[in-house]
Write a structure and sequence with these properties.
Distance between the termini: 69 Å
Largest sheet: 6 strands, mixed
Radius of gyration: 24 Å
CATH architecture of one domain: 3-Layer(aba) Sandwich
Number of strands: 22
Shape: globular
Helix content: 25-40%
Structural class: alpha/beta
Number of helices: 18
Oligomer: single chain
CATH class of one domain: Alpha Beta
Length: 567
Amino acid sequence: MTDPATLSVTLVDGYVDEPAHFGVPPYISTYPRYTAGALVDAGVSESQITYHTIDELRDEKSKWRDVEDADLFIYVGGMTVPGSYVGGTPAEPDEVRELAWTADGTTLMGGPVRFGVGEENAGAQNMERDDLDFDYLAMADVEAAAYDLVHGGLEGFEDRYRSNEELARWAADGAFVIEQHPNHPDYLICEMETSRGCAYRCSFCTEPMYGDPAFRSVDAVTGEIEALYDRGARHFRLGRQADILAYGGDGEAPNPDALHDLYSGIREVAPDLETLHLDNMNPVTIVDYPEQSREAIRTIAKYNTAGDTAAFGLESADPLVQEKNNLLVTADECLEAVRIVNEEGGWRPGESPEDAPSFGEGSANRLPKLLPGINLVHGLMGERPETYEHNKQFLRRVLDEGLMIRRINIRQVMAFEGTEMAETGADIAKAHKQNFNAYKQEVREQIDNPMLKRVAPVGTVLPDVHLEYHQDGRTFGRQLGTYSLLIAVPGERELGQSMDVAITGHGYRSVTGVPHPLDVNEASMDELTAIPGIGDGTAGNIVVDRPHSELDALAPEAPTDDFFSAD
């Protein structure tokens, strides 16, 4: 019998991306934290648990020794929705196999990888279940498997789901793992679970495989946040749920009192938090229960931090696709939900909530508190050429009505065993690939760009932008938060630092900017010419005539008050 107290365990995080769960850096998902907590609860010492990300192993070959030498090696990862990632690169199937081959001890794999893997982490693929050469594949909760495996002397386990009582212990006990993340403490956001599972059954979605939602108590969630906060975490996202409005209710109707207790409780245990965002919000809930939803949204916008996004799973505006795939919300209903979130959450720090939705001249120079996002999935059953037109028409209605949406996520379906899409697979997505690419580009040009200018106009200040990489003589970075904007600033600056940035221009899903406030007596030519209204000639004059003590006459055509300081 292996003594848990002497057991050495290595956890490798290959990252996750699920419909209601995200864990690609700068995010850390719940899986490694809960698994580590389960191990501690089973008797394994914290000091005997080593955590690495897959990117660490790519960059530092010496850390593979921790995989090789561990008595128990656990891999967590899996992608059930494809995306584009900046902060990290999810593990590919071949890399996961190599981990299993390297490990000399017992090997366990779990997380959404249990639903299946493809040839790569991308859309328009058929996914197949594969143990990737591990001793054990947890077909339910990997944290429960880890607990039972250790209790059983590494001799096996029965697949099962953990209880909320177990989770309350494991979530707090596993908080220590974040201290081993390479982004800790300054550039790490903790994904938080309020519930999992979904009462609805969309054809392509893996979230219903977790069953109907089982809500965690306010004390359990705030207790976990307090434990993470004590370990240095300052950034949190309530992302692990299908519908934040359903929290504490009957699974359908909102419970505004429960959301108030949750959000105010988070603020109480983490008074100096820097990010509090969310992810999924069901537009059907808003339409069916508008007044309760309005009250709940007002609470979220009161306690969250600016730039928050409530992702709406419209998936398709085509009635035929909606019918064939059990989709919940019509285009008209989704538009009404967009209106309501704009009216209750679309105000900016420094303004009154009654100002929502706020944009244009006179608006505060910060991102709105809470806006909707739109998720669209292609390759679903019933998709046809008209589908693309239905989606574009819906997005144009949002734009033309003067509403705001924070981002539009367009992707192709991944077909997993156990979903209705398994029979159709990725055939439709593959057949429509050319149409999909042209349509996506049209949306980016005609909708994304003007919408981004509305949401984040020139002069908008983005605090605490973390600088991540260099490209083409510029430095790129993001704020911590849900669906953060990619920001480019002139020059190659020291990576890893943070700065406030004022927006100077817009792409489709990214912006350009300059440090804020910009010291006119120190600014480079590239920084000066990035400001609208300042060309090469004016910038040259500013540089030649330094130092300046007054700003008014520097560039009469430029919004200098939004950018300059003469300190």
